[in-house]
Amino acid sequence: MYARPSELNETxxxxxxPARLLAGGTDxxxxxxxxxxxxxxxxxxxxxxxxxxxxxxxxxxxGAATTWTDLVREDLPPxxxxxxxxxxxxxxxxxxxxxxxxxxxxNASPAADGAPPLLILNAEVELASTRGLRRMPLxxxxxxxxxTLLEADxxxxxxLVAAPxxxxxxxxxxxxxxxxxxxxxxxxxxxxxxxxxGRVRDARLALGACxxxxxxxxxAEASLIGQPADADFSARLRLEHLAALTPIDDARASADYRRxxxxxxxxxxxxxxxxGEAGGMA
Length: 282
Description:
Helix content is 27%, strand content 26%. The chain has helices at 8-14, 28-32, 68-73, 81-88, 93-98, 101-107, 115-120, 138-141, 218-224, 255-274, and strands at 2-3, 20-22, 41-43, 53-56, 59-63, 124-129, 132-137, 142-144, 147-148, 155-162, 168-175, 186-194, 200-208, 215-216, 279-281. The chain is globular. It starts with a strand and ends with a strand.
């Protein structure tokens, strides 16, 4: 069965029975290869209420069907530069035009480019079903490689971020084997807030593609908060701050290379953030 509802309530009713959601299709179709899709397919590409960015009192809401191209074009605060930089590095322009932020998170790849930027924004996800709505931090929603807390009858409807301070700046850097159309070897997202006294009053750091899920680095963050944003600032980051990472050996890189590269990438991202650069490929 194939259904293409135009309203969220209709979608939730369809999900009362086991079905597979289809949004941009940029993960579903490559995953199927040459085989036709089987089973019940619910195509949510017509749900306009899930697309776009809206601002409410103290919160920015990103609809789950918002595409990467939408995000690149959206007028967002500087703290979101990390997310927009990541959006520009996701596949080719055709993929950015179709792929959605919700699909990227629900697919839950360890190399999902959207996860580190959203983690440093303290993002939450909104999940809907016929049972109602629930919200949870993205850090809790992502549980492992291709695993989330999304129930079978639920749909991710939005990503929610508390409105950041205008003084916050952010950067995203991605390391790959080539310049374009590449799955990350490692990626880093950094958000810094520097006070008028030149000291860092908030630091948020996350790494992706170096563990089963992207991770914040609380020990590294603590080493930066309260420190002067001087020429030696990034050197405060040490390899021991990355002890929680569990990189793997695969066709793209060895675990040892990933671990060493992650520290260099993180330091470069911190330096770029202090310079006010949004980032991109390392």
